[in-house]
């Protein structure tokens, strides 16, 4: 059984996501369709300037092949730029701690990982300079998330349009996703995190003495600005080695709650965007319900498994706080279990506890969500198009076969070619 405080935490996150989804989803649909929004008077001139400087015609759309090629070229340039920055870290500015350059293999691994929204880190976060953190890794967090939104919207256009060979412009989509969606949310979130105590400075490390007199080196840097886009973009690569378990990334119960909300709002919001662009909001809410159902059950199992403590401990050991191995006392076992479900359900990779310390039942949850393809609700963009391919198209096809009718989805027939492509996705993800 969950404690009342843990139940309130779960319900509060769920209600917040439910309330934010229609507002954010409607806003994202307007942005990606090029309609005026509340931020247009401020950001529209900036958007036009970006197109003018880059030589982009925002009215020219692309077919799926050109869209895919531009995506790959954009990602390749990002990987090369990130690789060069990491290799030259020791001679670049904003390196107050004199961090050395990354090795060739580590630079390549990190550059690819962050550009593909994988954000797998095999280095200590403190090993990156302030320039790398803010102008390198944080930028990759923006671009990879924006690319995910762009791909999801392009897929929606392909599903809902009639007699059109184009699915939009990749350059316009990624510009709007970054400028109107990710950047405003990140600015607001970074201010709130900094207010709560997340470090945001260009100073180097600080020296301090412990109560026992030992000397301690404390890492400092522009962490709030990277922490928020790490969560909003479902990236997960934190600026500190301990990730969201570190008090400089996640210092209070409020920041813990806000970071989980930040991770969830765009993946769930895109379901509403899909319904609005498809002209049938029931379709969006159906996908929302499927994602939410899986995630809520997973969260309850994970939280219950951790708050119940370790059954192998002797009866004399007080486990009133649950299983606290690998957990932070300020966060607690229940909140750690919920965070684990949220981060693995969205393929984020951010952690506020050590998952290998979880009890067997709770530890099964992250594994299950990952094996499911991390589509409940999945990463930014990836969750929606994963559900559309794996859930909607496959389900419609199977249901059509069962009733003896030609399967259709959103008025379009699901035939052999569509099924071959869907099965290719299943094989690749499997």
Description:
- Helices cover 61% and strands 3% of the residues.
- The protein has 13 helices and four strands.
- It has helices at residues 4-32, 40-54, 64-87, 104-115, 130-160, 170-196, 223-232, 253-278, 281-307, 333-345, 360-371, 382-403, 416-429; strands spanning 206-209, 215-218, 408-409, 412-413.
- The protein has a two-stranded antiparallel ribbon.
- A hairpin with a 2-residue loop joins β3 (408-409) and β4 (412-413).
- The protein is globular.
- The mean pLDDT is 92.
Task: Summarize the structure in short.
The chain has 430 residues and is mostly helical.
Keywords for this structure?
single chain, 430 residues, mainly alpha, two-stranded antiparallel sheet, two-stranded antiparallel ribbon, 13 helices, 4 strands, globular
Major sheet description? 2 strands, antiparallel
What order do the strands of the largest sheet run in, or round the barrel if closed?
1-2
Any idea what the radius of gyration is? Answer: 22 Å
Mean pLDDT level? 92
Shape descriptor reads: globular
Number of helices: 13
Low-confidence segments, given as residue ranges, are none
**Distance, first to last CA:** 34 Å
Helix content: 55-70%
Strand content: under 5%
- Total strand segments: 4
- The helix/strand series, from N terminus to C terminus, equals HHHHHHEEHHHHHHEEH
Provide the fold topology.
Layout: H1 4-32, H2 40-54, H3 64-87, H4 104-115, H5 130-160, H6 170-196, E1 206-209, E2 215-218, H7 223-232, H8 253-278, H9 281-307, H10 333-345, H11 360-371, H12 382-403, E3 408-409, E4 412-413, H13 416-429
């Amino acid at each position: 059984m969950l404690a009342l405080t843990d139940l309130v935490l779960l319900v509060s996150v769920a209600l917040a996501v439910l309330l934010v989804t229609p507002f954010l989803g409607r806003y994202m649909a307007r942005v990606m369709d090029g309609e005026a929004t509340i931020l247009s008077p401020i950001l529209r001139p900036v958007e036009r300037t970006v197109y003018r400087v880059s030589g982009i015609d925002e009215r020219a759309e692309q077919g799926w092949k050109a869209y895919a090629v531009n995506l790959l070229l954009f990602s390749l340039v990002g990987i090369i730029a990130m690789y060069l920055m990491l290799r030259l870290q020791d001679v670049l500015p904003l390196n107050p701690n004199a961090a050395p350059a990354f090795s060739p293999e580590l630079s390549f691994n990190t550059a690819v990982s962050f550009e593909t929204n994988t954000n797998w880190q095999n280095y200590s976060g403190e090993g990156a300079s302030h320039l790398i953190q803010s102008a390198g890794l944080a930028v990759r967090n923006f671009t990879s998330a924006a690319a995910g939104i762009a791909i999801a919207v392009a897929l929606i256009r392909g599903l809902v349009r009639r007699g059109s060979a184009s699915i939009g412009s990749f350059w316009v989509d990624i510009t709007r996703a970054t400028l109107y969606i990710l950047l405003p949310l990140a600015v607001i979130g970074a201010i709130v995190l900094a207010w709560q105590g997340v470090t945001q400075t260009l100073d180097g490390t600080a020296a301090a003495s412990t109560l026992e007199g030992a000397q301690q080196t404390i890492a400092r840097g522009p962490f709030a600005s990277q922490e928020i886009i790490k969560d909003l973009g479902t990236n997960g690569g934190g600026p500190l080695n301990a990730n969201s378990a570190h008090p400089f990334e996640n210092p209070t119960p409020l920041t813990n709650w806000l970071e989980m909300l930040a991770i969830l709002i765009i993946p769930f919001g895109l379901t509403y965007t899909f319904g609005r662009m498809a002209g049938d909001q029931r379709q969006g809410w159906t996908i929302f319900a499927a994602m939410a159902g899986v995630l809520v059950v997973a969260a309850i199992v994970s939280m219950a498994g951790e708050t119940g403590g370790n059954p192998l401990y002797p009866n004399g050991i007080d486990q009133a706080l649950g299983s606290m191995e690998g957990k932070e006392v300020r966060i607690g076992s229940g909140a750690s279990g919920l965070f684990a479900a949220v981060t693995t359900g969205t393929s984020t990779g951010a952690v506020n506890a050590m998952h290998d310390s979880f009890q067997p039942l709770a530890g099964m949850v992250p594994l299950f969500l990952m094996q499911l393809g991390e589509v409940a609700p999945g990463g930014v963009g990836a969750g929606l198009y994963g559900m559309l391919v794996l859930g909607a198209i496959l389900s419609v096809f199977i249901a059509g076969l069962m009733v003896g009718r030609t399967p259709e989805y959103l008025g379009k027939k699901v035939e052999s070619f569509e099924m071959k492509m869907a099965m290719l996705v299943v094989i690749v993800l499997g």
